[in-house]
Structure formats: structure tokens, C-alpha cells
Amino acid sequence: MGQLQNKTALVTGGTSGIGLATAKRFAAEGAHVFITGRRQAELDAAVAAIGENATGVRGDVSDLDDLDRAFAAVAAHGHGLDVLFVNAGGGKLATLDQLTPEAFDETFGTNVRGTVFTVQKALPLLNDGASVVITGSTAASKGTPAFGVYAATKAALRSFTRTWAAELAGRNIRVNAIAPGPTETPGLSGLAPDPAQPQGLFDMLAGNTALGRLGKPEEIANAVLFLTSDQGSFVTGTEMFVDGGEAQV
User: Fold this and answer.
1) What is the domain count for the chain?
2) Whole-model pTM?
3) Which terminal CB of the chain, N or C, has fewer other CB atoms within 10 Å?
């Protein structure tokens, strides 16, 4: 029996990186996994990679109509929702003098607005005793140049995690945040000045961790599984750092 046997899970931003690795792990542990993504081709490929226990729903978490469609698909499955991994997000590098209103609105729209209304719209479907995990970042605990807006969105999500853990405790719904360090994902490659040659960025970020390397998406997925399974049954309102010691030592 898997740790999520006969459970239903939803992973937003589940077509690559941490989201895809976690969706695969959930399915391997016995869950039926719904994933969302903005691009149909990538969504179809991710569903195929996860296997028969996966359903893809195309959509953007910053679009409330897209969220409604995702939760309608979950509702039609007929088992409610036991695990919600709110992972969709992103951002671009910009120092204060470079920041534009459009970039600010886009990052807050996806990372904060998208997360808030994902969780809100999930409430009628969340089974008592369900688990919610929100993807944060070590950036929220540091002052990294050009990461100001992204870091602020993740700090906001850390605050919401505490509040929602208190608000949903009466239903025994646990809410936690995961704070990955630098992890080998397509999103990280996209931050490189030349995305075709990201090794320089990777080496720099790896040097900031105590372990001297980047994390793997599967390592983050292991921690998310702990928080969503019975192994994490007495953990709520916390922020779990899975960062190779980047923000710790």
C-alpha cells in the first residue's frame, strides 16, 4: 500500500520541475493526480510521464475561470480532494530600478493571487483531514539583489500559510509551506543570462549551499510527500526548508 493509496491530489504547475516530480511521486504512492499547466503539449507529455493515474487540465492559476475548470474536473472525479500542492509560480530577475509595473503585477498575480484563489476555490472539495502544501522559496528569507518582487511574493505565501493553518485546523486540514533551495529545473535554467548555457549560474548557486550542489526535483518531492502523508500528521503552519543548507548555515 502506498502512502497516498486511494487519495486524490491536485498539483498546480505540474508539467515540469518540482511539480512534475511531485506528481509522479504522488501517483507512485497510489494517488490519482490532477495536474495543471498553461501549455497543452507540455501538459499532455507530463500526463503521459506520470501514467494512468493522472489527469491534466490546461489553465493558468491567475485566471479564475481556469481555476474553476480545474476544480470542476476534480469534482467530477467524485472523491473530493485529499492533497493540494500549490506549486504554480515564477518570476523574473529585476532590480528596483529595472522593475516595471507590468512585471510586478504578473509576478504577484501568479504567485500570490493565483495561490490565494486556488486554495479558496479548493475549500468545498477538500476532505476533512486533507493536506495543503504551498511552494515558497529560500528567497523569502534572504536579501538577494534582483529577487525583490519574487521574494516578496514568497514571503506573502509564508504568512498565508500560518493564517490558513489556523483557519482550517477545525477541519483537521494541515497547511504547510515548502522552501526549496536552488534546484535543477527548467525554471532555474531560464534565469540564466544565456538559458542555453546555464552552467555558470548553476555553479554559483551550488556554491551558496552547504552541500555544494543543486537540489534535484525528486528531493523536493520527497519532502512534499512527507508533509502530505500520515508521516507529517502533526505538522502544520510550518515552513520546511529543503535547500542544502543555503539559508541555514
Assistant:
1) 1
2) 0.96
3) N
The CATH number of residue 168's host domain is: 3.40.50.720
Host H or E run for residue 24: helix 17-28
Return the amino acid letter for 73.
Answer: A
Of 148, 147, 151, nearest to 137 by C-alpha is 151
- List, in order, residues 6 or more apart from 94 with CB less than 8 Å away: 100, 103, 146, 148, 149
Contact 242, 221 (CB under 8 A): no
3-state secondary structure 50-95: HCCCEEEEECCCCCHHHHHHHHHHHHHHCCCEEEEEECCCCCCCCC
Active-site residue, selected from the candidate residues 147, 150, 160, 164 = 150
Q: Is residue 197 part of a domain?
A: no
pLDDT tens for the chain, 249 residues long, are: 899 999 999 999 999 999 999 999 999 999 999 999 999 999 999 999 999 999 999 999 999 999 999 999 999 999 999 999 999 999 888 999 999 999 999 999 999 999 999 999 999 999 999 999 999 999 999 998 999 999 999 999 999 999 999 999 999 999 999 999 999 988 787 776 676 777 888 888 899 999 999 999 999 999 999 999 999 999 999 999 999 999 999
Question: Is 13 an active-site residue?
Answer: no
Residues contacting residue 240 through CB under 8 Å, at least 6 positions apart: 176, 177, 178, 179, 223, 226, 227
User: Is 73 domain-assigned?
Assistant: yes
- Amino acid occupying residue 249: V
